């Protein structure tokens, strides 16, 4: 058993879009960084000097770092095949041949080397802590696989040498963040949307419903829509902007032929994501092109100074969450159109999940639907979900959708739940300690953190 | 060693925190009770059939609940094909399937759910090793 009361625990939530980390007991994460890293293949790197680690600039670290980081010996002897650039600053700087790679795919960890570089950066450069001294509460997707859980546990204990660990499901943490032990959690995240029922602090069997429509998908749709309207989105590195006369600017295009397509797309998407967050709003009823043809437009100024007007699209794109088949009308998203037919809208996912749950708690679930995740910060999403659900739910059910009034709290609900859980006195006996790991192995986590 | 002593000495023993399970049993997949603690509720044959078949497909159990001696447990996430976990108020149950039997542990406060999981699943793994 591990007495974790003395030093504050670290809460780590690695999502498809961003990684959130900070101290338990605080009300928001200290560090938020992208779950994407820049990667340059070894063939494009200049020959490494003798002590590359000494030279490392803030936010850079070598893919196959030195033995100080406690890597297994075989990894050290291997020549690094690529160099990773982690964190907001390192990625904001354009480099020749730098590709952008994600840490997660379909909500699960896909590239462990990338994950390690993100954790390294988070713990050492951002939180500036020694992981040996802090117990670590990690949030995991509600549909995480046993293999992924064991790998995380091994990495944490063997590489970072942490004293104790706990894995908690995203849905459970969101539920705790709103002070409820039983609820239906609708988590609209970056990479996907997950609906899961939580009872007494545990995710119910069979009640998880997922869809690939998350913030990143909406961002892609926004980008494709803008481009189809003839708007060129220029990432900041592609031009210089000079003030020739007061209030009058001149653009000078720059050319970097060795920039990778993935980096360019990454930056374009960042702009499209900001357009989405600034102007989008969920429509009150099902979106119809004709009804919105005369809607007043909203202006948005792009980084290069051109102002665009967004009209019906600001309602159409968020409506994709409620009506995925709408994707067929978005140019260049045809590849998704086939899968879209099997994807259901948010209200249908909620009903499906509740119908898979125990008959005795369905009533309670209908009246405590929690809306969380970054995409849930979209205006009017709560009102629309509640309205649609009242229409579709059984007559006897009293539907209540709950969401924090504050966009920050919606976005970080999982992390905040972790912060609350890890600072509870009664939680301290739940930690999986390093000695228990050493005695029983990684599979022990399934029992300690079911 | 009789099956009864497996239950009495290795399931109903003091746990790491000093607390105990409230009841435990080993039940054959065919429905026969191999051994049970005196506190174990009287399970009906249809209850056994229900949870044994739920190791293959838990959707019915998830919708209607796990019953042990007439008491209802909500089915929370377990390990498909291997472990069923139930929750009732502050207590709960853990069921681990072996080749021929199901090891069942029932706990109530102050025993922690993870302690029940650990002891029941350890017993289950041991029985699987012994080819039971």
Helix % of chain B is 25-40%
Tell me which protein chains meet in the greatest interface and how many residues each side has: A-B, 26 and 28 residues
State the distance separating the first and last CA atoms of chain A.
Answer: 17 Å
Strand order of the largest sheet of chain A: 3-2-1-10-11-22
**Helical residue percent band of chain A:** 25-40%
Instruction: Report, as a whole number of angstroms, the end-to-end distance of chain B.
Output: 14 Å
Q: Going across the major beta sheet of chain B, what is the strand order? A: 2-1-7-6-5-4-3
Morphology of chain B: globular
The number of distinct β-strands of chain A equals 22
Percent of residues in β-strands of chain B: 25-35%
**Helix count from the secondary structure assignment of chain B:** 4
Q: Which runs of chain A of at least 5 residues are low in confidence (pLDDT < 50)? A: 51-77
> Mean pLDDT of chain A, as a whole number?
88
H/E element sequence of chain B: HEEHHEEEEEH
Protein name (chain A): Actin-related protein 4
Keywords (chain A): Chromatin regulator, Cytoplasm, Developmental protein, Nucleus
Subcellular location (chain A): Cytoplasm; Nucleus
Family (chain A): Belongs to the actin family. ARP4 subfamily.
Give the secondary structure arrangement, pairings included.
The complex is a heterodimer of chains A (450) and B (132).
Chain A: E1 10-14, E2 18-23, E3 31-34, E4 36-41, H1 52-55, E5 60-62, H2 73-77, E6 82-85, H3 88-92, E7 99-102, E8 104-105, E9 108-109, H4 112-126, E10 136-140, H5 146-159, E11 164-169, H6 170-177, E12 183-188, E13 193-199, E14 202-203, E15 209-211, H7 215-228, E16 239-245, E17 248-253, H8 261-279, E18 298-301, E19 307-310, H9 313-319, H10 334-340, H11 346-355, H12 362-366, E20 369-372, H13 381-392, E21 401-402, H14 407-411, H15 413-422, E22 432-433, H16 434-440, H17 445-448
Parallel strand pairs in A: 1-10, 10-11, 12-20, 20-21
Antiparallel strand pairs in A: 1-2, 2-3, 4-6, 4-7, 5-6, 8-9, 11-22, 12-13, 13-14, 13-15, 16-17, 18-19
Helix pairs in contact in A: 6-15, 7-8, 11-13
Chain B: H1 3-11, E1 23-28, E2 33-36, H2 45-54, H3 59-64, E3 66-68, E4 71-79, E5 83-88, E6 91-97, E7 101-107, H4 113-129
Antiparallel strand pairs in B: 1-2, 1-7, 3-4, 4-5, 5-6, 6-7
């Amino acid at each position: 058993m591990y007495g974790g009361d003395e030093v504050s625990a670290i809460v780590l939530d690695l999502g498809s879009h961003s990684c959130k980390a900070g101290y338990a007991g605080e009300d928001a994460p200290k560090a938020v960084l992208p779950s994407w890293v820049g990667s340059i293949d070894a063939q494009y790197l200049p020959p490494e000097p003798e002590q590359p680690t000494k030279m490392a600039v803030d936010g850079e670290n070598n893919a196959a770092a030195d033995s100080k980081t406690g890597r297994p010996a075989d990894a050290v002897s291997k020549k690094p095949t690529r160099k990773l650039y982690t964190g907001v600053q390192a990625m904001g700087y354009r480099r020749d041949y730098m590709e952008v790679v994600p840490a997660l795919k379909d909500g699960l960890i896909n590239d462990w080397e990338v994950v390690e570089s993100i954790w390294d950066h988070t713990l050492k450069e951002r939180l500036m802590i020694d992981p040996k001294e802090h117990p670590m509460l990690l949030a995991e997707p509600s549909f995480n696989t046993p293999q992924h859980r064991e790998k995380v546990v091994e990495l944490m204990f063997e590489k970072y040498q942490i004293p104790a660990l706990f894995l908690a499901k995203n849905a459970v943490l969101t539920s705790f963040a709103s002070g409820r032990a039983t609820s239906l959690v609708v988590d609209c995240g970056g990479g996907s949307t997950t609906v899961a029922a939580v009872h007494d602090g545990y995710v119910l069997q069979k009640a998880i419903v997922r869809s690939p429509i998350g913030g990143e998908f909406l961002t892609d749709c926004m980008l494709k829509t803008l481009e189809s309207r003839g708007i060129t989105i220029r990432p900041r590195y592609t031009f210089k902007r000079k003030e020739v006369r007061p209030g009058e600017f001149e653009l000078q295009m720059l050319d970097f032929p060795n920039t990778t397509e993935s980096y360019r797309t990454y930056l374009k998407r960042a702009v499209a994501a900001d357009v989405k967050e600034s102007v989008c709003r969920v429509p009150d009823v099902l979106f119809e092109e004709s009804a919105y043809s005369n809607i007043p437009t909203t202006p948005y100024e792009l980084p290069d100074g051109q102002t665009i007007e967004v009209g019906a699209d600001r309602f159409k794109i968020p409506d994709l969450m409620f009506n995925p088949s709408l994707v067929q009308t978005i140019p260049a998203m045809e590849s998704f159109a086939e899968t879209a037919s099997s994807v259901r809208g948010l209200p249908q996912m909620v009903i499906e999940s509740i119908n898979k749950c125990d008959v005795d708690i369905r009533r309670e679930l209908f009246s405590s639907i929690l809306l969380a995740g970054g995409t849930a910060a979209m205006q009017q999403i709560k009102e629309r979900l509640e309205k649609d659900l009242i229409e579709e739910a059984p007559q006897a059910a009293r539907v209540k959708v709950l969401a924090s009034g504050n966009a920050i709290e919606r976005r970080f609900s999982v992390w905040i739940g972790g912060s609350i859980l890890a600072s509870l006195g009664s939680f301290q006996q739940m930690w999986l300690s390093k000695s228990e790991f050493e005695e029983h192995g990684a599979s022990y986590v399934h029992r300690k953190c079911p | 060693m009789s099956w009864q002593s497996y239950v009495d000495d290795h399931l109903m023993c003091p746990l790491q925190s000093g607390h105990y399970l409230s009841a435990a049993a080993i039940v054959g997949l065919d429905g026969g009770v191999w051994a049970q603690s005196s506190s174990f509720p009287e399970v009906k044959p249809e209850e056994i059939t229900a949870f044994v078949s739920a190791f293959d497909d838990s959707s019915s159990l998830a919708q209607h609940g796990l019953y042990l001696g007439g008491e209802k447990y909500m089915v929370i996430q377990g390990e498909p094909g291997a472990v069923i976990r139930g929750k009732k108020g502050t207590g709960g149950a853990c069921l681990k399937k072996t080749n021929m039997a199901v090891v069942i542990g029932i706990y109530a406060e102050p025993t922690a759910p993870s302690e029940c999981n650990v002891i029941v699943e350890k017993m289950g793994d041991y029985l699987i090793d012994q080819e039971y």
